[in-house]
Design brief:
Structural class: alpha/beta
GO molecular function: ATP binding; GTP binding; hydrolase activity
CATH superfamily: P-loop containing nucleotide triphosphate hydrolases
Bound molecules: guanosine-5'-triphosphate, magnesium ion
Keywords: ATP-binding, GTP-binding, Hydrolase, Nucleotide-binding
Strand content: 15-25%
Radius of gyration: 17 Å
Number of helices: 5
Family: Belongs to the GPN-loop GTPase family.
Number of domains: 1
Helix content: 25-40%
Order of helices and strands: EHEEEEHEHEHEH
CATH class: Alpha Beta
CATH topology: Rossmann fold
Number of strands: 8
Largest sheet: 6 strands, mixed
Pfam families: ATP_bind_1
Protein name: ATP-binding protein
Amino acid sequence: MDSAISEPPARTPLRRTAAHGLKIVVVGGFGVGKTTMVRSVSEIRPLSTEETMTQAGAGVDVNAGARFKTTTTVAFDFGRISLDEKLVLYLFGAPGQERFWFLWDRLFTGTLGAVVLVDTRRLADSWYAIDRLEHHRTPFIVARNNFGPPAHDLADVREALSLPDEVPLIDCDARQRSSSKRVLIALVDHLYALSAARESAR
Ligand SMILES: Nc1nc2c(ncn2[C@@H]2O[C@H](COP(=O)(O)OP(=O)(O)OP(=O)(O)O)[C@@H](O)[C@H]2O)c(=O)[nH]1
Ligand SMILES: [Mg+2]
């Protein structure tokens, strides 16, 4: 695990005041930091399904651009965060490798919103995630993970992803709890704004 991530307590009981649970998924291409984000922000020790990458995956697992990786998610990550007295987010991190993408459609069931994590060095890897979310009509925001000094303005990233103006696009560092939390709050704000707009259109 990344040394910058503090280990969450083994067991944090759910508050008795918790009234609303929201299922949130973190998606994106291979190695963009999905597991890192769920781990950094979860208040329980997250369930992870990391497996060591071996030579057997050579030619099957495409790890170009992420050669530092030694493990990969083979099912999903699961974590939890209480945003306030009543609101609890249940976080699911999707597996990034193409051979596990068939799991995504199931993972999206009952999902209120999603975070698409992107690594701007490998932007094309995000297209599939955005395509599936649009297909499922799942609201989402996009977060650019910090893999070094940004080479592009966010406006350029928006254009390259053909993101409509109403989809929030922000910077983050998935290793930092405060930053990952800001991403989740941005998503919840976006969900509230969409639901308020729907209400007023009635
Ligand atoms: N520099 C930097 N490294 C990061 C950041 N987030 C994650 N990493 C590193 O990137 C690597 C990949 O992170 P993971 O969280 O495993 O990525 P993933 O998207 O879950 O990968 P798959 O599940 O295999 O698709 C790890 O070695 C992390 O330590 C970040 O914000 N900055
Ligand atoms: Mg992962």
